[in-house]
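Quick one before lunch.
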Amino acid sequence: MIDIHCHILPGVDDGSTEVDASISMAKKAVESGITHVYATPHHLNEKYVNVKRDIIARVVKLSESFQQADIPLTIHLGQEVRIHRDLLTSLEKEEILTLDDKGRHMLLELPSGRVPTYTQDMIYELLLQGITPIIVHPERNKELLENPKRLFELVQEGALTQITSGSMIGNFGKRIQSFSKKIIDHNLAHFLATDAHNIGSRGFTLHEAYDTITKMYGIERTFYFKENAELLMKGQSPAIEKPAPFKKKILGIF
Ligand SMILES: [Fe+2]
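Model of the fe (ii) ion complex:
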């Protein structure tokens, strides 16, 4: 399995604290059936700054540690970029790292409480530069939870989305779990990833989440998500299903 979002790089954000912790995380990932992870440290989320050149150097180093420890896990380049007004300038300054540094996809994080008014414009501008933003864990965004039509609009604009495996299996509560299902029901989810931070409560739960999806939707839906991660890794475009709009509430019922 391929995990396109996790915090396995040591000492750069609220994920792995040190190399040993990264090795423990890697072992857990491999045990759960993961063969490739994208190391996606936070960037500009009001607390952490991790620019492209630093991430590349750290990924090379961690990759060597995994080889020395004989861990069959390939690390890929990535970054979890918090949306900000100067994002395009950061891109010009080579601070932004797209997945595998291919200039095609990037993980884009919204603030947890809201969707900035310029989000749609930013998606448009990124697309113009050939970069498709993948909005990470939309199911955990308060504004989207209250107004899912906003998410439909962002996907219509051309953004892709990634649901977090822990949300799918209920680790963030029932409300976020049922919103995750609703996002999938409306064909607004394109990837599933762990967003793992440790080997504890925010670990590598991709396998469990795929099991849940298979039980709920059938194996085809699991294949859809897995195939999209593979296409992404090969530098190809993921499959995009036609998004289904949210219907108006009738007598307070969806
Ligand atoms: Fe993350």
